[in-house]
Specification:
The complex is a heterodimer. By secondary structure, chain A is of the alpha/beta class. Chain A contains 22 helices and 15 strands. The longest helix of chain A has 18 residues. By secondary structure, chain B is of the alpha+beta class. Chain B has 2 domains: 58 residues, Arc Repressor Mutant, subunit A; 86 residues, 3-Layer(aba) Sandwich (Glutaredoxin), CATH 3.40.30.10. Helices cover 47% and strands 13% of the residues of chain B. Chain B is built from 7 helices and 5 strands. Chain B has a 5-stranded mixed beta sheet with strand order 2-3-1-4-5, with helices on one face. In chain B, β4 and β5 form a beta hairpin. The radius of gyration of chain B is 18 Å and the shape is elongated. The chains are: A alpha/beta, B alpha+beta. The interface between A and B is large, with 54 and 42 residues.
Chain lengths: 542, 157
């Protein structure tokens, strides 16, 4: 931290920007310059703090004072409060929803104090557009260590020992994937970062890219060193313009400092990467579809049987594809060692999980907890519970490929395997809380609508099957459900699961299967009593 | 003018097949949509059949083959937005500006679309007008937003 009395951190994540934080940043900087206060007060833009719902957010360091819902009118007073003898602005403090008590410091706010942030640790405290900030927190030291002290095999064994599993959803062991790519024959190989966060209701990858883009890039460079790749791509959704922009800036900075390009850090290792903007297709999260998209084709998954992407990927060359958060973990593992990483988590899921906590929950935002934390801890301790006096009904994880778990399962520890066992999936980290006013049949209909829109249309079970399921669910929610519909839904689910080409089709029925498993009575009420217990569905125009 | 702009855009690319998606993005960014003529030129430029360019353009949700309104209104239909009232917000906007999803007004003032997820789930439900995101939307707020714009025109934001 530079030698100034105060640092004012202005959140410029997408959420806070929509509340006007960019203007706040410029106004503060101009005002401090004009009044001569910029001598001892530094204004800094940061990435997402995670508590978007309370934005725009401003944090005053070194004290750690946390201001919420800041408006431009508040800025002169904030500046005033920073002069000697000034007092913090109580009216902008976060108020505990239960007690209405104002809380001055962010470290005392339950939303933050109950989390354990490693990937997100510096999202919100460093300027994502300044390389010096990243270097100041030990950035690119892991790369230096890997290149100068470790062989590629050593790097892979460190990642294997850490037990890190792919955080894009499927949870495949990262080290094994790297090893298989390294061992694949061929001299040309590629590394791709999957940042096509298409899961509706999830924004954790966006926040990491906006808040700490260099951590992702450093992880990719280390991966390239380990598998022997010279070229990489970050495949990021075009719907995330801010993330795209920050990544572009970061890549350029890394090139200038010699972290990317030829002879990285004066070694024999060369690697460079490009940013590729995904044009909006959920199925492109699937590795073979993503690869085809970069090749300039329709994003359609390859048919089975096919080789793994690690053996035959982009332009039929061995390709390593990992998620944003998986890469962001790599510098931490290399710097601190596999042993450090395995301290957190459960037996088979190590490290932390980042969730986008949204829906009917008091504190919406981005959170990070050790793998194995219970849903209760996430929803109640961090999320502050369900707003109003409503009862918790369900928790949806894994987006359109995942499922809805009932309220009585909230003491279940959350990791890859427990969620799969319960019929859902970890997915990339969307976690949507639903209360008694949410209709589970409508939720199932919503996801099937999404899946049938996003089906690439290549294979019939997915293209027509999801459409049929959607039509049946649509009828049920309109009061036109027929006896036998549920059996038909089960039958369709089974055949779509068994016969679809890719993961989209194979998991498309999960939202229906889990709601049928845990909320069957709601379906029955719609079909037999022509009644929506939650009062959401417009049954017969009522 | 469109022809010159297209020429300038293509000049920044090498003419390789794998540049198709970025080229389409750049052309749409500058022309607002993908005119048929531009797609034909792009096919020539990267040496692929015209049908291939159209097949890619029609596959991805981002691409438009018809002109768009000056104000592109995108209602998020992500999960968090859905359960916090996005369908009602969409309904209100449809009524207020007199367009259905995926339609553009005749005077090219508005295009109404839905998007899978803007990524502002903590501020759900949200909408985006051109590049600006507005969160915690309600039917009432949406009605106000469009009425003000209707009456006051361009400068009333």
């Amino acid at each position: 931290m530079p030698n100034k009395r105060h640092t004012v951190l202005v959140c410029e994540g997408t959420g806070c920007v929509s509340g006007g934080s960019e203007q706040a940043f410029s106004l503060l900087r101009d005002e401090l310059g004009r009044s001569g206060h910029d001598e001892d007060i530094l204004v800094k833009r940061t990435g997402c703090h995670g508590f978007c719902q309370q934005g725009p957010l401003i944090v005053i360091e070194p004290e750690g004072i946390f201001y919420t819902k800041v408006k431009t009118d508040d800025l002169p007073e904030i500046i005033q409060s920073l002069s000697p003898g000034g007092k913090p602005l109580k009216r902008l403090f976060y108020r505990d929803p239960a007690s209405d008590k104002p809380i001055r410091y962010y470290r005392e706010i339950p939303f933050y104090s109950k989390q354990e942030r490693t990937i997100l640790k510096y999202c919100g405290s460093i300027d994502p557009e300044e390389l010096t900030d990243y270097l100041g927190i030990g950035g690119y030291e892991a790369l230096r260590k890997a290149i100068s002290d470790m062989s590629p095999e050593r790097v892979i064994s460190e990642v294997k020992n850490s037990g890190l599993r792919g955080l894009g959803g499927a949870g495949f062991p990262t080290g094994r994937k790297w090893e298989s790519c390294r061992n694949a024959p061929g001299t040309i190989k590629y590394v791709i970062c999957n940042a096509d966060e298409g899961d509706p209701g999830a924004f954790q990858d966006r926040s990491v890219m906006e808040g700490n883009p260099h951590s992702v890039i450093e992880g990719m460079i280390i991966a390239a060193y380990a598998v022997g790749a010279e070229k990489g791509f970050i495949y990021v959704r075009a719907e995330y313009p801010l993330a795209v922009n920050r990544l572009k800036i970061a890549v350029e900075q890394a090139r200038q400092e010699g972290f990317l390009g030829n002879h990285i850090l004066d070694s024999d290792f060369s690697f460079d990467l490009d940013i590729f903007q995904g044009a909006g297709a959920f199925v492109c999260g699937e590795s073979t579809a993503l690869v085809r998209s970069i090749e300039g084709k329709r994003g359609i998954p390859k048919v089975m049987p096919r080789s793994r992407t690690t053996e035959e990927g982009l332009w039929n060359k061995p390709t390593l594809l990992n998620n944003v958060k998986t890469f962001a973990n790599i510098p931490l593992i290399i710097t601190n060692g596999a042993g450090w990483f395995t301290q957190r988590g459960t037996e088979k899921s190590k490290g932390t999980a980042v969730f986008s906590l949204t829906g009917k929950v008091v504190n919406c935002g981005l959170i990070e907890v050790p793998m194995g934390a219970t849903l209760r801890k996430i929803i109640y301790d961090i999320g502050g519970g369900v707003p109003g006096d409503r009862a918790l009904k369900a928790v949806q994880t894994g987006g359109p490929s995942g499922g809805c778990l009932p309220a009585d399962m909230i003491d279940m520890p959350v990791d890859f395997d427990s969620l799969t066992k319960a019929g859902s999936i970890m997915g990339s980290g969307g976690l949507v809380v639903m209360d008694e006013d949410t209709c589970m049949v409508d939720v199932a209909r919503y996801f099937l609508d999404f899946n049938q829109r996003e089906s690439c249309g290549q294979c019939i079970p997915c293209r027509l099957g999801t459409r049929q399921m959607f039509e049946i669910l649509n009828d049920i929610t309109k009061g036109n459900g027929r006896p036998g519909d549920i059996d038909l839904l089960f039958e369709l689910s089974e055949s779509i699961k068994k016969s679809s080409i890719c993961g989209l089709g194979k998991t498309a029925s999960n939202p229906v299967l889990t709601t049928l498993r845990y909320f069957r009575s709601e379906y029955d009420a719609h079909i037999h009593e022509k009644r929506c217990p939650a009062g959401v569905c417009n049954i017969n125009g009522s | 003018m469109e022809d010159e702009l297209l020429e300038d855009i293509l000049a920044t690319f090498k003419g390789e097949r794998n540049e198709l998606v970025p080229i389409l993005q750049e052309v749409q960014e500058n022309l607002g949509y993908l005119p048929e003529k531009a797609m034909l030129e792009i096919a020539k430029f990267i040496c692929v059949p015209e049908s291939h360019v159209y097949s890619v353009a029609s596959f991805y949700a981002q691409f438009r083959t018809l002109p768009l309104g000056r104000k592109r209104v995108a209602v998020c239909r992500g999960t968090a937005c859905h359960i916090r009232g996005a369908p009602q917000v969409l309904n209100t906007i449809e009524k207020t500006i007199g367009l259905r999803e995926s339609e553009t007004s005749e005077d090219l003032e508005y295009t109404l679309e839905t998007v899978a997820c803007i990524g502002c789930c903590a501020l759900a439900p949200c909408i985006r007008i051109n590049k600006e995101v507005s969160g915690e939307m309600t039917s009432e707020k949406a009605r106000g937003l469009f009425h003000v714009k209707e009456e006051g025109g361009e400068g009333a934001e």
